[in-house]
Amino acid sequence: MKKLLQVSLLASAVVVGLSGCNDDKASAPASDASKTAVEKTAPELTSFEAKSAYAIGLSMGRYIGSTLEKQQELGVDLDNDTILSGVRDGFTENGQMSDEEIQTALTAYDEHINELIEAQNQEEAAATLKEGTEFLEKNAKLDGVTVTESGLQYKVLSEGEGDKPKAEDVVTVHYTGTLVDGTTFDSSVERGEPASFPLNQVIPGWTEGVQLMPVGAKYQFVIPAELGYGEAGAGTIPGNAVLVFEVELLDIKATDQPKAESEEDEKAPAEAASAE
Description:
Blueprint: H1 7-18, H2 32-40, H3 48-72, H4 80-89, H5 99-139, E1 145-147, E2 153-158, E3 170-179, E4 184-187, H6 188-191, E5 195-198, H7 204-210, E6 218-223, E7 243-253, H8 263-275
Antiparallel strand pairs: 1-2, 2-6, 3-4, 3-5, 3-7, 6-7
């Protein structure tokens, strides 16, 4: 799952957000329970100062609310009215906790959230691993699917007649990547622009698989997690995820230039790939 914002960062935002405000401007709505009371005392937003103060409070409240909403997914449910009480007391010297107690409580909360995140990540990774293993077993039995020694699975969707790339070459491809449930996580096709990159600078499943393709070919690759992003995952790709790619090889730019060529010429393919 996506990393959740640390509550210490949230607390820092609260401190910064409140530093320029005063008691009367601390009642921005943050819960349904307090909505009626807040509406009764809502300030008129006619002056520069009123608009600025309200904007600070509203943005802070939305930030806190969205952060806590994510953490509620972990089973942590904090009372909004208690949060508002702490915010109001923060404008005064009447807080019920010392600075040391605040830091201790926030540190303990951070640690608790991190433990819950780790437990959920491990649970999701185990489920993803099981799902991926079952998918690989079924896919390997389908007509036209070849399984390499590394475990990579591929199927020729349409064959090409051009050269095949080497790992050091820069390739230009169109591709669509999905999870085993069909969710698309990346697609040059949807962006309407092919991608170019050195073939030895991508995940191992790509490096191995695209070398099997002649220019003009379109293959389907089913890539085990160990040839993809492994246990850690990447972005929206969960840990232990099996990846499914449809790849069309459009072009190859060889990087092994003759020694007689200038240093500038030798650098050109890498610079072109970087620019793209």
